[in-house]
Amino acid sequence: MNLPEEIWVTDTTFRDGQQAREPYTVEQMINLFDLMHRLGGEEGVIKFTEFFLYTKRDREAVKRCLDRGYEFPKVTAWIRATKGDLELVKEINVEEVGILSSLSDYHIFYKFGWDREKTVNNHLSIAEACLKKEIIPRCHVEDATRADFQGVVIPFVQRLMLLSEEYGLPTKVRLCDTLGLGLPYPNAKLPRSIPKMIHAVTSEGDLPSEWLEFHGHNDFHQAVGISTSAWLYGCCGNNGTLLGIGERAGNTPVEGLLFQLLQLKRDTTVDTMVLKEIAEYYRDIGYLIPEFQPLVGGNFNVTRAGVHSDGMIKNPEIYTSYNMGEILGLPPKSVVGRYSGASGIAWKVNELLNIEKKNWYGKKHPAILLILETVGNQYNEGRVTAFSDREILELINKFLPHHREKAPTSIVSSLAVEKIEIVEAE
Does residue 297 lie within any of the structural domains? Predict the structure, then answer.
């Protein structure tokens, strides 16, 4: 292992992320860029983000993000390996541009219809054209986990380093696991082993770790694991998208990378509380976040099982990894379902009424048992869905009527709007 002194996250939400959904509007890109800036914290852990340049909308977004004047994340562009695309960069004042540099034989022979030498020379010529304009090239080695590493990738990187020496500018590399085939195991073979890949590029290719990024895809549930292994074996940068939104099964999620980084570098600061705002913003613009998605899904930090609820009541640390209330603004919650039991009912009632822990209703309280019986009867009659907060509030009002005025205003209001009858206990 060779964990660099400094590691960071880079972003491709507005490039790769836009290839998997309806394009963002300019305002949406600006708002997400602002949130990303805050998420990265004072140290700017999210160092770069990249944009397409092909549409008027994208170019306007780039200009407006540049006008924000943030040090981080820096705005970069992305182009194909053609001189025509390079002309677009002239119009935009960016320091760095990503260049699609496909090097697997599948792309060389089947996509381009060229040979290896012509392909490598083409990619290098675009990189050199950037250097001549004093723009830092970042060569995206597409499909790296299916490329001939010793025969093509390493010689390509070595020639990039010669260009860097000639022009006095960095020549960066992003290794892309385009189809999500990478493995985090150092004993796997090249080109599948991400540890071996990173070691080869930095040792044999002589590429400095700070000029190297890894870009993962999640086709086989490996994205966060292989990205973390890239850091551990000598890569400074890890590329991802907000919420992992990307082609097919998605990219490595930026939020997942940040949580791994915080465990590798304990003195790093990231404003994790912004993740809640980012998730809420995506919901506001119509994106459906999967309920079970880590950190941002609606079911994250929610307990349904009665045995878990019982443990949480006794000590939250039994079934929670961290204090997510402090880290994400998402304290543990419960949902009443078929398997909640008395403990699950008790937790939900105390949660809804916002009762101090010392005054909580226990699982043997008569009202809790009556609510449990009512819930159980509905499931015995064929119900399959969980109980909403409003439904539990109805039962609280029925069996604990003296707590009616303590219920959350938002829930009381929604009950009134929907004209749900409040039954007073005799």
Answer: no
